[in-house]
């Protein structure tokens, strides 16, 4: 079916609606969601340097990495370690290990579970996660293999 617009007003109205929808979509995305830049490489963590990571429910923040905001490594179950980008998925501030036991972003108080899932606050999605691999006493974090949930 073909639509015809009888006058310039109709065409202007349609154009204004399209522009408004596009602006709303792009601004909303920029304001409410942020993802870290992609990086390459492997981070090697000696687990013996972080005794707290031997117990489930503990996490550490690491800054000596190629990531802009650093890395969070969590022991989510006995013998299971997961690695998250510290980049907050709300507006990109640094998430760190919180005294209450989870993860927290100080900018707008988003809190995440130890599995990187948002619990409260404006963060719209889980933290970006990197694949990990155990190699003897070391945990390898493969920065090329990330998951955006
Ligand atoms: S940047 Fe807003 S809650 Fe983290």
At a glance:
This protein is α+β, with helices and mostly antiparallel strands. 17% of the residues lie in helices and 34% in strands.
- Catalogue the ligands: FE2/S2 (inorganic) cluster
The end-to-end span amounts to: 40 Å
The arrangement of helices and strands along the chain is HEEEEEEEEEE
CATH architecture of the largest domain: 3-layer Sandwich
**Share of helix among residues?**
10-25%
CATH class assignment of the largest domain? Mainly Beta
CATH topology of the largest domain: Rieske Iron-sulfur Protein
| Percent of residues in β-strands | 25-35%
Low-confidence stretches: 12-29
Structural description of this entry:
It is globular, with a radius of gyration of 21 Å. The chain starts with 7 loop residues before the first helix and ends with a strand. The chain is of the alpha+beta class and 149 residues long. Strands 1-10-9-4-3-2 form a 6-stranded antiparallel beta sheet, with no helix packed on it. A 4-stranded antiparallel beta sheet has the order 5-6-7-8, with no helix packed on it. The longest helix has 25 residues, at 8-32. The model is unreliable at 12-29 (pLDDT under 50). It is built from 1 helix and 10 strands. The protein folds into 2 domains: 1-32; 42-147, Rieske Iron-sulfur Protein (3-layer Sandwich), CATH 2.102.10. The structure holds FE2/S2 (inorganic) cluster. FE2/S2 (inorganic) cluster binds next to loops.
């Amino acid at each position: 079916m073909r639509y015809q617009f009888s006058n310039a007003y109709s065409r202007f109205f349609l154009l204004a609606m399209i522009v408004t929808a596009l602006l709303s979509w792009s601004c909303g995305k920029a304001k409410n969601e942020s993802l870290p830049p992609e990086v390459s490489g492997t981070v090697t963590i000696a687990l013996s340097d972080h005794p707290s990571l031997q117990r489930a429910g503990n996490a550490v923040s690491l800054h000596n990495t190629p990531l802009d905001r650093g890395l969070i490594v969590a022991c989510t179950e006995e013998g299971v370690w997961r690695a998250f980008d510290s980049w907050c998925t709300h507006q990109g501030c640094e998430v760190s290990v919180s005294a209450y036991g989870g993860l927290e972003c100080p900018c707008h108080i988003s809190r995440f579970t130890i599995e990187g899932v948002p619990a409260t606050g404006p963060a719209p999605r889980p933290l970006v996660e990197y694949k990990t691999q155990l190699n003897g006493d070391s945990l390898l974090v493969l920065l090329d293999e990330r998951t955006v949930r």
